[in-house]
Every structure is written in C-alpha cells, then in structure tokens.
Amino acid sequence: MQYSSVFLAALAATTALAAPWQQPSADNKLQVVLSGPGVSPAKSVLPAGNRVAQQASQTGPFSFVELRVGKNVENKDYRCQILDEAGKPIVVQRGANTDVTFADGGKGKWTFRNQASKVSKVICDPTFKKIDASATEIRVQLSNQGIELGVQRVFKEGQRQEQAVGTGPFTTIEIVVGALVQKQDIRCQVLDNAGKPIVATRGANTDVTFSDADKGEWTFAQESDVSKIICDPAFRAGSA
C-alpha cells in the first residue's frame, strides 16, 4: 500500500507532537555558581544522587557561592562544598549561618567568610549535613569533681564578652573552641568574688587567661568561687 507524501508528513508531525516532553536537564541537576567582584561567574552543573566532585570551571578568586537545586531533584536539602587550592573546605556564611557546606533553601548566595579565594573543586554529597551550632561557639566549663559541681557558659565569636556565674567553689576550667571559630587561640579569664583574676595551671603554663589548644583543663591554684567569665580576643598568654 502506498501513502501520499501529504499523509506521511502529517503522520510525522502527529508523532512528534505525541512524544513525551523532556524536562530541561537543569531541572534534574545541581548548579553551583561562583562569583565575585571583577570576575566572570563560573557555573558547575552536577548530577544529583551520589557524591560527585568536579574541578571548578574557573579558579577565581571568588567571594560568593550559590547552590541552585533543580526543581525535579527529590532531595531539596542537598548540600555542596568548595575547596581552596590547598584542598581545604572554604568557610562560608549566609545570615546567621556559618558552615563548610552550603544549601539552596531559596535564600541566595553564601559569602566566603575570610576573603576572596581561588576554588579548586566543587563537591556535592547527599550525606552532607548542616554543621552543629557548637562548631561556631566557645564553651567554658567550670568544675569541681569533689563536690560534683559543674557550670557551663557559651560564648559567640566576636568582641569581648562577659557572663556572670556567682557560684562555686571550682577547681578547674576548660575552654572548648568550636572548629569553625575563626580565632582558635581565643583566651578567657575568670574572676573571683572580689573581682580579681583567678590563677590556674596547665602543664608548665601558669596564667590568668586560658586557651583551648586541645590540651584540656586548667587547674586553679586554689579552689575558688567564680563571679564572672570574660572571653576577649585581645587577651594574650603570659599574663600571670
């Protein structure tokens, strides 16, 4: 049986119209956009699903990063990470959030915390999670094991801060600095009820200001009530 050219053309057109519509590829992918003053934006498009790492399409330096999760990606909480030239995660901030991974959330760009940086690699991983708040905090723990007494105060990174305690007696103090606190060597001080700095020792170090350094507790020269804790980025070692 033969068909006219007009009939065949009509059939082809009908078949094309009946074919299922394909979603734009970006709807099923993750887009990571790097930008900054004076540089052209660089976009990396990564598949959603398993962990995937991709060389940055341009190195920068950049100051901002934005994740755009395709509307057909099931996991809307997807997070990505960018590495600097040394292979270390770049710390980013958006609003009150500081992290080494970043999400979309419909809230736009994240800003590099420290300074503009070159980017070597973009990584997206469905197992990435928002970092715990403690990573950006400074925790001061006062203890007296003999009477099972303990008090903790939490400080935010930034300027000099003071918090009242008004109890005791204590025998030790420990400073725990979160992994994302920019000033890792920040020091704190405790005052007795007379407002005088309390002296404490850790190893060969005796001081009236105390740091973390992953070395644990400082021991008071003598047990004492504590009226106040002060954390100040201007404090320096060797004050005793």
Task: Report what the structure shows.
The strands form 3 sheets. Strands 10, 11, 12, 13, 14, 15 and 16 form a 7-stranded antiparallel β-sheet that branches. Strands 2-1-4-8-6-7 form a 6-stranded antiparallel β-sheet, with no helix packed on it. It is elongated and about 65 Å long. The protein starts with a helix and ends in an 8-residue tail after the last strand. The protein has 240 residues and is mainly beta. It has one helix spanning 5-18, and strands at 29-36, 39-47, 52-55, 64-69, 79-83, 92-94, 97-99, 110-112, 121-125, 137-144, 149-156, 161-177, 187-191, 200-202, 205-207, 218-232. The protein contains 1 helix and 16 strands. Strand 14 (200-202) and strand 15 form a beta hairpin.
Percent in strands: 35-45%
Number of strands: 16
In whole angstroms, how far apart are the ends? Answer: 105 Å
Task: Give the CA-based shape.
Answer: elongated
Write the layout of secondary structure elements.
Blueprint: H1 5-18, E1 29-36, E2 39-47, E3 52-55, E4 64-69, E5 79-83, E6 92-94, E7 97-99, E8 110-112, E9 121-125, E10 137-144, E11 149-156, E12 161-177, E13 187-191, E14 200-202, E15 205-207, E16 218-232
Antiparallel strand pairs: 1-2, 1-4, 3-9, 4-8, 5-9, 6-7, 6-8, 10-11, 10-12, 12-16, 13-16, 14-15, 14-16
